[in-house]
# Entry
Amino acid sequence: MWSFLDRVVYINLAHRTDRKEKMENMFLKSFPRWSRFDAIRDSNGAIGCAKSHIAVLEKALADNVKNILVLEDDCKWVTKSMAHWNTAYTMVEELVSSGRYDVVSLGCTVPEYESDLRLRKGCTASSYIVNGRYIPTLLANFKEALAALEIVKNAHNESCIDQHWYSLMQKDTWFMPVPVMVVQHTDQSDINNTINDGTWSQVIDIPKTITHASIGGGLGNQLFKLAALDHVARKTGRIIYLNDLQNRSTHSGVSYMDSIFLYWKHLYRHSFPHTSVRITERSLKYQEWDSSAQHIVMDGYVQDWRYIDRSFCGRIAFDRTCLSRHPGIQETVFLHIRGGDYVGNKIHDIGLDAYYVAAIAQFPPETRFSIFTNDRFYANSKTFIKDLNCVFVEENEVDSVFLMSQCAGGICANSSFSWWGAYLNSSRKLVLPSKWYNYADFVTEGYYFPGCTIISV
# Structure
């Protein structure tokens, strides 16, 4: 374990042999390599603490480390639930291995979180991992804190390093797993000369959480479910978690966590064995998902543009290099024809031939079309493309959705796949069918976002 860490250093005052023994004989046994830093002692403990952390980071910066875990000598692993600890470890390993972080704290007091476990406030510098590229930023912050401490000469003020760093948390990429992995031992503190109570039961407990029953299906369905989960979590102040049985595409058999959903990957498998309340969607109808329950599970397709925050669209990780394979595609209009599993399907085969003719007529006669389809044989059988100025685009699901979003306009099928290709860039002419299913009981108003053109089917 912890092989993804480049350096592990613990800070220890020479006279605190009691803490040294606990760290080296218990806590540090988990790490394949580590070193001790002889802490700088000062009559003002907060100043000595700041100087010690600064010295450790300056050495790491000089050595050009990839990352460093800085520990204080009163660390203790949280072993209340090893299932929780293991899922927290999975999150930390993914974040650090990917480099998509500035700092990862293993345990802070009174934390304030975003829904994606970004840390916006948290006290205590007893255990934190710093990305090598971020060390200069954190060093500058600690040096500001030290300068202020040397003026005020007070160990209990906002210039202590573990409070002065709040300004960085607000604007940069800090994370902390839930529940925390590390707390402090309850013993004598050399900073404030009192017994420090390190139990912090309030941060070991899991805050309100939310998950989706199954982020599965094709890419379009998964995007809707993740978008709604993200939206509701942010709106209700909940933490997102994703369990490890989700995310396999029914069409390609691949997981999108290494591509389009990279932003949320640290939440993948970050699951907790607790009792949840399941709330089921009503006939595809938009709802608030209000609940006083501590942990809730969303169950439904949640296909409504009102669940999608624009910030969500900006966090989808597309690879733009596919544009170079299709020069000129941004001057074309995409046209999506869904064949394959839709053909003869009693729910989805709604008969769109007349719709396509009317949709094509919405664009000038000289328009060039880029056709996206999962069934080229079926698409070629359609008479409405016989005299069309068009080219077939054959790419994987993720690149296809991105390319559709880059076209000058679009004609959607009754499919969440091309719907997303349209919605990701809604400031252009986009045509949608007035009918989505063969069942009138399904509420479909959520597909029709402002500005789209609806053609009767």
In short: DSSP finds 13 helices and 22 strands in the chain.
